[in-house]
Design a protein that fits this description.
With 241 residues, the chain is mainly beta. The chain is built from three helices and 18 strands.
């Protein structure tokens, strides 16, 4: 997951914000960058500032951020009224890869394979997004409603705001591993979905390829890793100075 700061005004300069940022990973400078985008979460916070390194955070690491922004400028007529600090730890490197061509989901933890599941992805009219998604939340039963369905779905792991999940789909058993027929979600057998649900942690990345769909939009959950690093460093909605 990125580090996210929500800003209550649309800043026009990121110069002081960038200069006030100190992030370390296990005591060493993180070499990350901020990317600013319009918020889709909180109406009172129009801009989100997302911070990440070039690659995924290292596993089993201690991350510290000191954002000494109080009194600094956010552009003409704008001054930050808070400074922020954050301490967090990362867990194991639980990394998923879903291949839309082979219809397999392979998951590793700290480099060792733990799962290799057959899947069914989105059909041609409702394709699954390509790109890297991040586990957002888990629910033992998720009520899903859409065009032609209204289901209580067990072992649901959310990966986009717009409604993509990795979940159990007992009704689609004949297609799992054979063809893609879902509304965009990643369908697993009930046993495999339960195993992944129990294993997955919020913040775990899953990279999708060959789905036939477009790349997951940056704003549709934690789509940060789909922005090329050079583009990310440019700053997004508030260009880097």
């Amino acid at each position: 997951m990125p580090i996210i700061a929500y800003l209550s005004a649309s800043i026009t300069s990121a110069k002081d914000f960038d200069a006030a940022t100190q992030v370390t990973v296990n005591g060493a400078p993180a070499q990350g960058a901020w990317y600013f985008q319009k918020s889709t979460i909180y109406a009172g916070y129009p801009i989100e500032a997302h911070y990440r390194p070039a690659e995924f955070w290292p596993a089993h690491a201690e991350v510290t951020m000191n954002l000494d922004t109080k009194g600094k400028s956010g552009g003409a007529g704008l001054v930050y009224d808070n400074s922020l600090t954050l301490d967090m730890k990362t867990g194991p490197a639980n990394v998923g890869k879903v291949d839309g061509k082979t219809l397999r989901m392979v998951v590793t933890s700290d480099g060792k394979q733990v799962f290799d599941f057959p899947v069914s992805l989105g059909k041609a009219s409702t394709p699954t997004f390509n790109g890297t998604k991040v586990v957002m939340e888990k629910k033992a039963v998720e009520h899903m409603v859409g065009d032609g369905y209204d289901e209580q779905v067990p072992w649901s792991v959310r990966v986009t705001n717009s409604g993509e999940y990795v979940h159990s789909a007992s009704w689609n058993g004949g297609n799992i591993g054979q063809r893609s027929t879902s509304h965009g979600c990643t369908n697993l057998t009930e046993a495999n979905a339960k195993a992944y649900f129990d294993f997955a942690q919020v913040g775990d990345p899953i990279t999708y390829t060959g789905t036939g769909g477009p790349t997951m939009p940056t704003w549709d959950g934690y789509g940060d890793w789909n922005v090329p690093w050079n583009t990310w460093q440019a700053g997004g909605a508030v260009p880097a100075n």
